[in-house]
Amino acid sequence: MTEERLHAPLAVDWSDLSVAVRRVGPPLLLLSGLLVAWQAVVLATDVPPVVLPSPLAVADALVASAPALLSAAAVTAVTAGVGLAGGVLVGLGLAFAMTASRTASAVVHPYVVALRIAPVVAIAPLVFLWFGHGVPARALLVATMTVFPVAIASLDGLRSVPREQLDLARSVAASPLRTFFAVRVPAAAPSVFAGVKLAAALSVVGAVTAEFLTLTSGLGYRVFDASTRLRTAAMFAALLALACLGVGFYLLPTLVERRLDWTAGD
């Protein structure tokens, strides 16, 4: 039996392959069309490279500055990652507290909303005054931007548990703590991940905003430096690296959510 398996032809799951093609194909076709249109506009209008470089010029700048971009991307990723982790932990803690206690909800909820309303550029000077201009201070700014979506989305999910599930937990004499973690939390998982995915996208935005304000390191600084030197191709290359980083941050909680769904399905 073992020998037969060794000599058996390698099975290919064509259904998974077709699904992957359907998912990746349209975005790649759109990207190809945009690049062709971009190149055509540059050739047809003879626009100066400082205004609109060609895709080939951007590709050259991307290759030439790859080591510097990778280093800057690492700084931005650390800033966004630490801030996102802090925002998710605080947001989940606030959502749990507001779900468990009406008093906590009445006290905390207005401040969570106020934190979202306050623009990051307004509180950044105080943060930098108190904590300096390094990565910890920038990560703190990111955390202030990511707390709101996680807290509000998680709170909505925790409060939207079907009444039948809560009644079933009471019928088996489940404790409030067990009901919370065995019933409310699993039912709220889709809402929680929706908030985390939104926060993941905002974390990169927050990191770049903080880098624009500090002008010390990161992809935000690379974009600003290239723009001030009129190196438009280099600026496009930094923006491309920033877009890839943002997509990666968004996809990470998406993959974790799918993994958890798959595990639950087994």
Structure report:
With 266 residues, the protein is mostly helical. The protein has two domains: 2-44; 53-265, MetI-like (MetI-like fold, Orthogonal Bundle), CATH 1.10.3720.10. The protein is built from eleven helices and no strands. α4 runs antiparallel to α5 (102-117), α4 (66-100) packs antiparallel against α9 and α7 runs antiparallel to α9 (176-214). The chain is globular, with a radius of gyration of 24 Å. Residues 262-266 have low confidence and may be disordered.
Concise account of the structure shown:
By secondary structure, the protein is mainly alpha-helical. The protein has helices at 2-7, 14-45, 55-64, 66-100, 102-117, 120-131, 135-159, 163-171, 176-214, 219-228, 232-265. The chain contains eleven helices and no strands.
Number of helices: 11
Helix share, percent:
over 70%
Order of helices and strands: HHHHHHHHHHH
How many distinct folded domains?
2
For the largest beta-sheet, the strand count, sense and barrel status come to: none
